[in-house]
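Milestone M4 deliverable, item 7.
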Amino acid sequence: MNGAEYGLRHGLYTALITARGAAVRVLQHGKRDLVVPFPASGPNPHFRGVIVAPWPNRIPDGKYAFDGTDYRVPVNEPARQCALHGFTPELDWTLEARTESALTMSSSIVPTPGYPFALTITAQYRLDSDGLHTSVTAANVGERAAPYGVCPHPYLRAGPAPLDEWSLEVPAGTFLEVTADRLLPLAARPVAGHEYDFRGGRVIGPTAIDHAFTDIAFDGGGEARVVVRDPGGTGVGMAWDRSCGWVQLYTGDTEPPLPTRLGLAVEPMTCPPDAFNTGTDLVRLEPGASHNASWRIFAT
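Output delivered:
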């Protein structure tokens, strides 16, 4: 179901990238998993490792307006009646180029009544001594401006201990409060004094997170990092550039009999949930224009 897959290698890093969703199915440093893998055949649970576009997170009821016209995209999260994670996770991406340590894949979003815009999405993966680098470029190949957002969807694994024992560091000063039933945005709140304040790094414990964070501190090189560490000393981090002013964190909480809290989803996003309606940090991609976002995953 996940189609062809392509192996990459550099030093101690190895990766497997699938054609379906351009997903990182496996990423290892030595013999250690840096992300929660998924089977080569069968469904990909919980969008593990996919590229998400042209919108990250949710659109309630699949309804939005753009340039004065109302649209509706299919609802694929029936329990919450939301359109979740765009179109690209279900697309079969085409391999364009490949070396031992890098590859380029592409996909096309064709116009539909709910999203009558034409985009070409190109994903470049590259392994080097600093980890797995990803660069995603969207080009508007249509004749009208298009609303756009993008994010990755890996579940990071710090080590063999349970997620509750991992420490987490997040350089974000604000989180987006959401409704309990549908996880729809309510209001931005400072993390100071809240259980979601991980700026100084602390153990996750039983805290459940499925929220977007912003007011992100970037370093002098324009990079932000989320790092999770196992009490045994191993760890994994995700870094991204200023193209992503938001990051969604999800502790992977599921209901029995599904396995729960297997890894921490870290999703640098160009815009927050429901940006197609709020317009917050939404990319307006004009005809002929392109947009790029980059991130990487690395062992610590």
